[in-house]
Amino acid sequence: MAGTTTSDERTARRTPDELDRVLERFEAFIRIECGLAKATVEAYRRDTRDLFADLREAGIYEPRAVTSRALSEHIAHLSERGLEPSSLARHLATMKVLFRWLATSGVIEDNPTEVLDQPTRWKKLPNVLSPQQLAKLMKSPSEERDGSGLGLWKRDRAMLELMYASGLRASEVGALGLSDVMHDIRVLRVTGKGDKQRLVPMGVPAHDALRGYLSEARPGLARDPSKDRGRVFLSRTGRPLERVRVWQIVRRHAAHAGLGRVHPHMLRHSFATHLLMGGADLRAVQELLGHADIATTEIYTHVDRTRLRDVVKKHHPRG
Q1: How much is the pTM?
Q2: Going by CATH, does the domain composed of 131-312 fall within 1.10.443.10?
Q3: CATH class of 7-121
Q4: Any idea which residues carry the catalytic annotation?
């Protein structure tokens, strides 16, 4: 199935077949009957065209001839092209919708996607920053580089410290309220996905940075109480920071620190990874991250191979 010719080029050089008619009907189904957004319809259409191009190269020209093996080979082909696990999962999701519709419509008798792995089984190992890289990131916000006159560097430093110290998502940063900060015990009440709340401790550096921001910078930003909604982190206009703005701040400071492209979730990945490296229990990390399923947390166990080897060497009688 390998080759450099694109699916569009291959389509332009041949006569229409049954797969073309299926594509037209499938697109109409997801666009009209399912009412999917234009961008989603285009993504489904693009994935289906890629699939049909591979099927034709394998000599398959009608849906009834498609086997689970052919679909697996298509996924393998996409993987060889360097697609991310998330993109592979989306392609599989498209195939499942397509062949479920074909089966329901009576075009095929057996659904070949039923035996394929679910997208949730495909895990991408998270990128993690080292403690040295994180130290550089935390130092990036500075008064010398600020220039706002509003002390935004104090906000940025407090935000970065909390994201790493407490494993906060970008959306959780924006949603954090003043009433969620328990200074006496250095704990945050975090509202995560599904409005589920969890209590997460803060380290001393994070708490110190947060107190500095709240006392010295936030009052100047919170000029209109009707705008700030009692949130901790505010923009220069006094409104709560939105998720996109959190991403921009993290990326800007990471670039200044020479760390390349860093996104907020890397701080959360680093939080979980470093806890496990320090000997934390997996269940405890699950609670701190707010994961409903421990299988989601288990992805972080890959990073601690060196420590596990050291434990075996030190404690195993034949180590």
Answers
A1: 0.60
A2: yes
A3: mainly alpha
A4: 169, 193, 265, 268, 291, 300
